[in-house]
Structure formats: structure tokens, C-alpha cells
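Dear colleagues,

As part of the handover before I leave the project, I'm documenting each prediction I ran so the next person doesn't have to rerun anything. This entry is a single chain, and its sequence is reproduced below.
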Amino acid sequence: MIDISARTRILAWLATVPFLLVILMFEIAPLLAVAANSIQTETSFSLSNYREILTSKFYLGSFKVSFLISVATALIGLGIGLPAAVLLKRMPGRVQQLIVICSNIGANFTGFPLAFAFVIMLGVSGSFTLLLQRIGLLENFNIYSTSGLVIAYSYFQILFAILLVLPSLAAITVEIEEAAHLVGASRFAFWRRIGLPILAPSLLGSFLLLFANAMGTYATAWALVGGSANVVTIRIGELTAGDVFSDPYLADALAMLLVVSLILPIVVEQLFLKTKDRER
């Protein structure tokens, strides 16, 4: 007879089958298809797609712009999200829960609705634009630009950062703070010497998630600036669905390079954390 522990393991594996099938059908299989198409042309297998991308200033420029926007908005998200999460942790439970729910909703408010909201507020005739121009601000600001993308991305990056950082603050207990204050540590010294080092692994992981979130954003960028912004997701979309410059094989190669650019920082992070663990 099968003992209880073996039966439990079998049931656990059976319970994961639907999840594994979803992963296989909607993540692994499409990724393999994209990888296979990326080394094809209309006539044969070839690496010419990658050669064209890596020798093109236009496509390399799209990765550069996407990288800079992603790094900038990830830093903005963490720079504002971390202190906001610290303040949120000190609030009463019900208030904290309400703000977390609102942050969760806001972090998922992206794409065309977000772009439309920013156009209404900060467009050429936007309510905030007209108001600020009356007092001499935003004279040359253009929401339909890379700067506009940074502002739009920062909206959901900040809210996403709060959701990412808040759970990690549980590592900083009241006892740790009280012990630091008893030995005369100021609040600034506490965060510089104790708080931030404790949170460093979580902050690094949060930064990479925010970076990946911005790198992969398409709908918000397309709705706000169309094809005028040279970001890699828009280039992929135009090559996939464009009427004039359609080249799905080249789009697949761009997508694979985008995947590599997202996986590589995560691998480096894991190696860095393992090295730190060994040093301890």
C-alpha cells in the first residue's frame, strides 16, 4: 500500500499539472517558437536578423532608450516608493490595507487608460499644463516625448515599488530600531548603517523587477507617443503588425534580445547574492 506521505506527494504533483500545462502552453512554447523564428528568414535559416540588429544604430538606439527609461523610472520608483513604504508601515492596519489596495489598483492602471489620463492632465491643452503655464512652468514640456514616457512610467513604477518594498520591511523589527536608538544612532545613521544593508538584497530584486516592468511596457508607450519614440517594444510591434515595414522574423530576433536583456541582470543578481552568502 502507498503510505500517506507518498500519497500526499503524488496528489501534490497532480495538483501542479494544470499550472505546469499553463506554463508550457503560454510561456515555454511561445518562447521556443519565437527563438526558432528569430533564426529564420523568408527563405532559409540564418543569423542575419541578429546581424542586422547588432549592426544597426537604429535598433541599438531603441535598446539604449528603453534601457535609460527603465533605469530612470526604476530609480524614481524606488526613490519614492521606499520612503512611502516606510511611512505606510507605521500607519494603522486598516489604513495600511486600504492604501495597499489602492496602490495595487493603481499599479495595474496602465496602457491606453493611463496614457489618456496623462494626455488630459499634461497634454498640449491639459488642465495641469495650462495651469502651470500661467505661473511660468512647463513652457517647453511635451508629454508626447521620452520625458513624457518617464513621467507616465513613474506613475505605476512608484506604486509597484511600494508593493514590492513593503513586505521586505518586516525584516526591520521594532527591536532592531530600539537597539539602534539606545546606542545613540540617529535615524539617518540607522538607515545608512543598518536599515539599507538589511534591505539591500530586496531592494536589488525590486529594482530588477521595476526595470523589467518598464522594459516590457508596450501599450502605454504606444498609446502616448505612437511610433515616434524609439523604444524596443514599439519597434517589435511595428515589425509585427506594420503595413510598410512588416518583418516578423526580425521582430522575433528583437524579442529574443529583449528577453536576454531581462534575464541577464537577474542571473547577475543571483550570482551576486550567492557570493555575499558565502562571504557571510
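The chain is about 80% helix and 0% strand. The longest helix spans residues 4-38.

All the best with the project,
I.
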